[in-house]
Amino acid sequence: MSNDSNPALTVDEIIDCLRDRWRASYDLQLVVRRNRLYIQVMWAYLEQQSFPLSEKAYRSHLNEVIEVVNRLGLSDVVRKWLATTSQKPRIGKAISLQLKADERLEEFLL
Q1: Beta 26-33 vs 36-45: how paired, if at all?
Q2: What is the pTM of this model?
Q3: Cα–Cα–Cα angle for 73, 79, 83, rounded to 5 degrees
Q4: Can you tell me the distance from the alpha carbon of 97 to that of 4, in angstroms, rounded to the nearest whole number?
Q5: Domain locations in the chain?
Q6: Is 13 exposed, middle or buried (0-12, 13-18, 19+ CB in 10 A)?
Q7: Strand locations in 34-82, DSSP E?
């Protein structure tokens, strides 16, 4: 679904971006609220002792999240948001971006 002007996100690119921005490999989640889809950068991160996933499971989870973003054609939107948001995840407070897409979004809102 991607083209040269909107290359697909990769797990390594996301991890590098998160580490460059916030010095931690934060968890990403897709959340549906009021028929809207959001990507959230959570406050938990891989480097925490209490983080519930192994690095392999974390990478697999990130792959599932970015697969949805890529299939919606929103890789550049998410890429730019992660690089420019002034917000920072804090304990108990994720940062969110509403994913606005065409009719393909409906399959994720069921």
Answers
A1: antiparallel
A2: 0.87
A3: 160
A4: 23
A5: 11-99
A6: middle
A7: 36-45
Residues in the chain: 110
16-21-25-31 Cα dihedral, nearest 10 degrees: -110
Spatial contact of 72 and 101, defined as CB atoms under 8 Å apart: yes
User: For each of the chain's 110 residues, which pLDDT tens digit applies?
Assistant: 444 578 999 999 999 999 999 999 999 999 988 888 999 999 999 999 999 999 999 999 999 999 999 999 999 999 999 999 999 999 999 999 999 876 666 666 65
- CATH fold, domain 11-99, is HIT family, subunit A (3.30.428)
